[in-house]
Amino acid sequence: MEITVNLPEDIVEGAQAEGLLDDRRLADVLRAEITRVKAARRLGQMVAAIHAVEPPLTEAEIQAELDARKADRLAQES
User: Fold this and answer.
1) By residue range, what is the domain housing residue 54?
2) Which of 3, 7, 34, 49 could make a disulfide contact with 11, Cβ separation 3.0–4.6 Å?
């Protein structure tokens, strides 16, 4: 697919200097950003779920929940 993007000159210059305007590199940048956005969304959902618990969780309980989710994610990626 071909797309046209209008960017400020300083962004274009910086991207060119770093070799980011190559098709493959630009695709890599977009993939990384998609991954980051999805992770931020999941984190927001976890925080909302933790805040919805009554009575509120202790810091240790919150950390244990985050550690468990991270372990699950890492196990799925393996």
Assistant:
1) 9-77
2) 7
